[in-house]
Write a structure and sequence with these properties.
2 domains, 12 helices, Endonuclease Iii, domain 2, mainly alpha, about 0% strand, elongated, single chain
Length: about 260
């Protein structure tokens, strides 16, 4: 009489269970499909004629646009622009008259010391870091540039607290160079209107330099800043007051072109 193999049924059942589990593991998972939101339509590009017309209108409205930062000369302009980072021009202008009264030159500014400068600009955001940079850049101007403000971009950007935007402002306003300093306003306008779309301020700057006619480059940066500050606002653009609404490619305009 054949002897039964103990546990055979249990082994078969266990093997079957393993096979079933293996089958489930190998079964492809159902792919979950989610509807993608339609991409926002990019503004169409401007024609050279439209760009020239836009700046012709800006010039007709304000032939000699001026920066709104209070300053006396290239040095005080440089300091004012450094102080204006992540701050409003109006806020900076409340502090700088007193600062420039006692520190109108790099030599006198450096002599004030960081504590004194900090006290004079304490109403401005990031005043501790800015006070340190103002003293350091003043010392460097004295030591390396004879107390003058250099006209070369590389030399300006080598100063503490000075980046590309600040250098562009100084080169433009102090030395008449046709540079374009891209701040938050110009970055917004370049992308919103389609005039010079870009992912970074540098991208927008380079595109503006490529498309703005040479005759308008000297003042282009001021026209665009003022337009962004008072008309093409971030939250509620005043399209009904816009000089270039009919040329603008933004699909969200609040007035018919």
């Amino acid at each position: 009489m054949a002897r039964k193999t103990p546990g055979r049924k249990r082994l078969v059942t266990k093997a079957a269970g393993k096979s079933a589990r293996s089958g489930r593991a190998n079964k492809p998972k159902a792919t979950k499909t989610t509807a993608r939101k339609p991409a926002t339509a990019s503004p169409s590009s401007w024609t050279p004629r439209e760009i020239a017309e836009a700046f012709r209108r800006f010039q007709a409205a304000k032939a000699e646009p001026k920066g709104e930062l209070f300053h006396l000369d290239p040095f005080t302009l440089l300091v004012a622009v450094v102080l204006s980072a992540q701050a409003t021009d109006a806020g900076v202008n409340k502090a700088t008259p007193a600062l420039f009264a006692v520190g109108p030159t790099p030599e006198k500014m450096a002599a004030l010391g960081e504590d004194r400068v900090r006290e004079l600009i304490k109403t401005i955001g990031l005043f501790r870091t800015k006070a340190k940079n103002v003293i350091l850049l003043s010392q460097k101007l004295v030591a390396e540039h004879g107390g003058g403000v250099p006209r070369e971009r590389a030399a300006l950007e080598a100063l503490p607290g000075v980046g590309r935007k600040t250098a562009n402002v100084v080169l433009n306003m102090a030395f008449g160079e046709p540079t374009i300093a891209v701040d938050t306003h110009i970055f917004r306008i370049g992308n919103r209107t389609g005039l010079a779309p870009g992912k970074t301020p540098f991208d927008v700057e380079q595109k503006l330099l490529a498309v703005v006619p040479d005759a308008y480059k000297l003042h282009a940066h001021h026209w665009l800043i003022l337009h962004g500050r008072y008309i093409c606002l971030a939250r509620k653009p005043q399209c009904e007051k816009c000089l270039i609404a009919d040329l603008c490619k933004w699909p969200g305009k609040t007035t018919a072109a």
